[in-house]
Design brief:
It is a single chain. The chain is built from 9 helices and 15 strands. It is α+β, with helices and mostly antiparallel strands and about 325 residues long. The protein has 3 domains: about 100 residues, Sandwich (Jelly Rolls); about 90 residues, Rhamnose-binding lectin domain (RBL) (Jelly Rolls, Sandwich); about 80 residues, Rhamnose-binding lectin domain (RBL) (Jelly Rolls, Sandwich). Strands 1-15-13 form a 3-stranded antiparallel β-sheet. It has a 3-stranded antiparallel β-sheet with strand order 3-7-5. The protein has a 3-stranded antiparallel β-sheet with strand order 8-12-10. It is globular.
Length: about 325
Amino acid sequence: MQQGRMSFIFLLVLLCQCGVKAVDLTTCEGDTAQLSCGLTSHVITCESDTASLHCDQGLIKVLSADYGRTNSATCSSGKPANQISNVQCTQDSSLSVLASQCDEKQNCSISVSNTVFGDPCVGTYKYLYVSYICIPSAAVIQTENSCEGDTFSISCNKQFIKVLSANYGRTNNDTCSTGRPANQISNVKCTQSSSLNVLATQCNGKQACSVSTSNTVCGEPCVGTYKYLNVSYICQPNNHFIKVSVADYGRTNNETCSTGRPAGQISNVHCSQNSSLSVLTTQCDGKQDCSIPATNTVFGDPCVGTYKYLSVSYTCAPNPA
C-alpha cells in the first residue's frame, strides 16, 4: 500500500482485560498528538488501494469516514501539485458507505475508489479516512435523543460510557417537534461536527454523565432551527486510562518528520525539552482519550529554527493511578 506522509501516526490500541499495552506515538510539529485508551482505530488508505478494517475480538462499528482530501501531505508521494492542492474535498456519503459494508463484521475490506464512493473532486488524488471501534459482540448500542433546552443524561451503572456517535442539530422533522412551528423543524440538514468531541470529552470513561442540550455547550449549527442531541453509546465492562511514561518535544534524529524539510531544520539532533513529560502527564494521565498540539506554544521552543516532533510512550492501565 502506498503511504504518504501522514499528519500524525494513528495507532490501534488493543487491550486485554487483564493486561497493559504500551504505545509509542510520534507527532510532527504543528500537528496534534492523539492518545487513546478507548479502543478506537484510525485508518488512512490511498485511492486505488484497499482499506482493511479488523477486530480480533468483537465487531466493527464505524464512527466516521471521509473519501476525499483535507491536507496536501497524506498520500502525496510522487503526485503532481495539481492532484493534491485541493484540500477541501469531502464526500458526505462516505460514512453510510462504510457503515453498510463493515458494521457488525469482524473483518471488512473495501476498495478505495470513485466507483465505490463517487468522485467528490475530479482530478484530485484522494484517500479514505476511517475511524472505527471494536465493540464486544454482546454489547448493546443505545441511542438517546435530548431536545434543545433539556439535559441529556446517560448511566451505565457499574460499567463505563463509550460514545460512538453524536449530533446536535436536526436530521428529521419528527424528533422534538411537538408544538413547534414548521419553520423551526423544516431544516433537516443541520449537523454540528464537534458534537462527538463534546460528548466524548464530557462522558467517555464515566459511569454516568449529564450534558446541557444547548447552543452554549454544543455550538449553534443552524440559527432559527429547534435542535436536538442524538447520541449513540455503549456501556463497557472494562475501562483503561492513559499513563504517560516518556515524552520529548525536540529532535534526536534527522529522519523523523523530515519530509520536505531543508537540511538546516533537521540537522540539530541534540534537541530535547525537559518539561515535555510533565506537560503530557498533566494533560493526559488518567484520561481515556487526549489530544495535544505539538507546538512551541504548548511545550516551549528548545531549539529555535529546528523542525521538531513530539515522541510519547504511554500505557493503557486499568486504574488512573
